[in-house]
Each structure stands twice: as structure tokens, then as C-alpha cells.
Amino acid sequence: MENLQKTNLITMTLDKVDFQLQEEQNFDWLKQYGAVFCVFDQQDSGNISFGVEKDERKFFVKYAGSKPIDFTGNPEDAIERLKKAVPVYQSLEHQHLIKLLDHFSTEIGYALVFEWFEGECLHSHWSFGGIAKYTNPNSPFYRFKKLEVEKRLKALDAIFSFHTYVESQRYVAVDFYDGSILYDFKSNETKICDIDFYRHSPSINDFGEDFWGSNRSKSPEEYGLGAPIDSITNVFNLGAIAFGLLGGERDRSFSKWDANQGLYEVAIKAVEEDRNKRYSTVKEFYDAWKSVLN
Ligand SMILES: Nc1ncnc2c1ncn2[C@@H]1O[C@H](COP(=O)(O)OP(=O)(O)O)[C@@H](O)[C@H]1O
Ligand SMILES: [Mg+2]
């Protein structure tokens, strides 16, 4: 499968950046936003994204309509998904969410233009895949885990406050995982990216076991066809993210936890397998977390 895919790849160059696709495409429409300085061509979403720069201003441009290397689906579906994401970014605008600036159809596909955020992705599978995420001193996740607890708590606060806002707007996070967290190691700022699949709440799992998300942070509901996908689901996801950023990720023992016991208890309650034992809203979870902090 892997080899079969790789033999059919074509290489394209935009400005000084090379990337691969399964089929050639015209990217002339991208020039209006400036020169390409980086590309994200290894996503399985069906989107290919570019960092572009013009007059010292940087943008992140996400495009659906081509066939990226790791995409096995239909470009039309990726286009539909990206179009549907526009009102989601508009409804959930927040200081800790990357900012959508523009969106438009191209000859074949659809593009979203965001402000560039100078952050590094905490699950950068394309540059630090597999074990390297945890062991390579250059990996953003590795470097993040070396930061003092105060800084990591501040990052979690950004994540929790954004998701409390998501809940207040009657949305539910879908496919939120550590790959959606961008951390700027210079300014110590955190932003969330890739909220494309967030939906109106409550929703249901319409995919079964392969529902969106990572097994590092998916709740039991996110494996079961027809299960509720709602605030209580997101409570689990946020608790699991806390274990990723402060603890032993899927090893949720106290010995791997870098913060205090009070916070551990809040996080453990959030990741109860039985959804009835968790906090019943994201706000309740965040309030409990903050009350331990203060
Ligand atoms: N506004 C942004 N500024 C800088 N980098 C970004 C921005 N948004 C996303 N990225 C980077 O691009 C990667 C791919 O974006 P993502 O939204 O996850 O694409 P996809 O929809 O294909 O999954 C992210 O993991 C992140 O590293
Ligand atoms: Mg993504």
C-alpha cells in the first residue's frame, strides 16, 4: 500500500518549497497571498496547507481539492468539509483560536486563509513521528514537557478557557487532540488550530470505532456508534489532554503527574470511563480546576 502510493507521487515546487501530491495542481491563486515558505503536505485530512508571506506578513492557507500523499478519500468530500468549517471558525472566534481572515473557491477547490501563528504543533507527526515525539530533544512535545509546570498550566488554561467558550456557544469539540495545540516557546502563548470538525452540541458518534480523534485523548463514546458526543465527552478529552501535558499521557498514574494532587483529582474525575461519573459540563470541570489553582 505504502509503496504503491509512493510510486505515483509527483513533486511540485512553489517558490523555494518542494512538496508532493498524487496529482499535479495549479496553485497560481496562492500567489496573491505572497511567497510560500513552508508546506504541510502529510495530513490525512485531504487538505494541503501552506505558510505564505507577503510584505512581512505571514498567513496560513489551508486548501482542499487536491490529492495529498496520505489521503485516500475523495477531494470533493474534503472540499465539503472545509466549506462547512468556515462558520465554525466564525462562530468560535477567540483569543486562543487561530484567526480566519478569508475563504474562497478556486478553480477546482476551496481555500481558507488564517493569520499565521508562530507556534509549534505538540503532535508534529510529519517531523517527529513515532517515538521521536517523546525522545528527540528537538521535538515540540519533548520541549514542552521540559517546561516548568507553571508554563504548562498556563497553556492548559488557554485550552480550557477556549473549550468553555465552545460549550457556551453550544458547540462540541470533535477531533481535538494534541495535534491541534500550537505553542510558541518564545512568547509562551498557546493557540488551538484545526477545529474544522467541531459541531453543534449535542451530537452523536456517526462513525463508530474510527470516529475522529486520537486514541491518546478519545473518550469511550468516541469509539461507539450512536454514542452521545457532547459536553461530557469534551470533559474527558480535556482531562486526557491534561494527562498528556502534565502527566504520563495514557499512563494516568499519580507518579507520572507533575502538578499537585488537587489538580490530579480533577483530571482523574474528568477521564472516568463512566460518563455519569465525570463533570457534567466543561465549565464545571474548568471551575473545579481553577478553584484548586487559586
Ligand atoms: N494559523 C496557523 N499558523 C501556523 N501554523 C498552523 C496554523 N494552523 C495550523 N498550523 C499548522 O499546520 C498543521 C496542519 O493544520 P491542520 O489544521 O491540522 O490541517 P488539517 O485540516 O489538514 O488536519 C498543524 O498541525 C499546525 O502545525
Ligand atoms: Mg489536523
UniProtKB/TrEMBL annotation:
Please state the Enzyme Commission number of this protein. 2.7.11.1
Recorded hits in InterPro entries, A to Z, give: Kinase-like_dom_sf, Prot_kinase_dom
**UniProt keyword list:** Kinase, Transferase
Q: Does the keyword Kinase apply?
A: yes
- Single GO term (MF): protein serine/threonine kinase activity
Does the keyword field hold Magnesium?
no
Can you name this protein?
Answer: Serine/threonine-protein kinase
Q: Which organism is it from?
A: Alkalibacillus filiformis
